[in-house]
């Protein structure tokens, strides 16, 4: 059974459509239909189900997927620290996380969700940015996973 077949089985088991995943990830449905689900997209499914599928996933994980899972757990740890306002504690973890992603994939740009996560982290932790610069960088970060995002109508103007 291929990884995509496993994901499809999981989606069906939990009643999750490709459209729901695309909405959660802020990507066009066509992206998922063309590329199939990858590890990072799968984890959006886990988050949608508040971890109900972790045990199922770990039974079928390969060595390569184990590496991705460990990166995913590091990403979650960084997110929790940021949510708790512990920016200084998160900074060395982010640097290590980014280096591991680059080592595994060659660049963060190859995994759009991670690229966006890192860029948003950098914006939030850069105290030298003016409000205008922060907003412009935020817009660029949002376009990483949603290239057709219309900022002119973002707030219903």
Structural description of this entry:
Helix 2 crosses helix 3, helix 7 packs antiparallel against helix 8 and helix 8 runs antiparallel to helix 9. By secondary structure, the chain is mainly α. The chain has two domains: 57 residues, no CATH class; 87 residues, no CATH class. The N and C termini lie far apart (48 Å).
Care to give the gist of this entry?
The protein is mostly helical and 157 residues long.
Radius of gyration: 17 Å
* Domains, number: 2
Tell me what portion of residues adopts beta-strand conformation. Answer: under 5%
**Biggest β-sheet strands, sense, barrel:** none
Structural class category: mainly alpha
Low-confidence stretches: none
Shape, per Cα inertia axes: globular
Number of DSSP-assigned strands: 0
Order of helices and strands: HHHHHHHHH
């Amino acid at each position: 059974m291929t990884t995509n077949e496993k994901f499809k089985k999981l989606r069906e088991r939990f009643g999750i459509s490709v459209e729901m995943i695309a909405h959660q990830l802020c990507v066009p449905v066509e992206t998922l239909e063309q590329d199939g689900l990858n590890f990072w997209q799968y984890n959006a499914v886990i988050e949608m189900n508040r971890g109900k599928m972790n045990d199922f996933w770990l039974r079928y994980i390969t060595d390569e997927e184990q590496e991705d899972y460990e990166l995913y757990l590091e990403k979650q740890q960084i997110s929790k620290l940021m949510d708790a306002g512990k920016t200084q504690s998160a900074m060395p973890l982010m640097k290590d996380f980014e280096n591991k992603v680059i080592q595994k994939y060659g660049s963060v740009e190859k995994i759009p969700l991670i690229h966006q996560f890192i860029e948003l982290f950098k914006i939030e932790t850069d105290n030298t940015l003016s409000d205008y610069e922060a907003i412009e960088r935020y817009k660029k970060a949002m376009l990483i996973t949603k290239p057709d995002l219309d900022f002119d109508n973002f707030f219903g103007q």
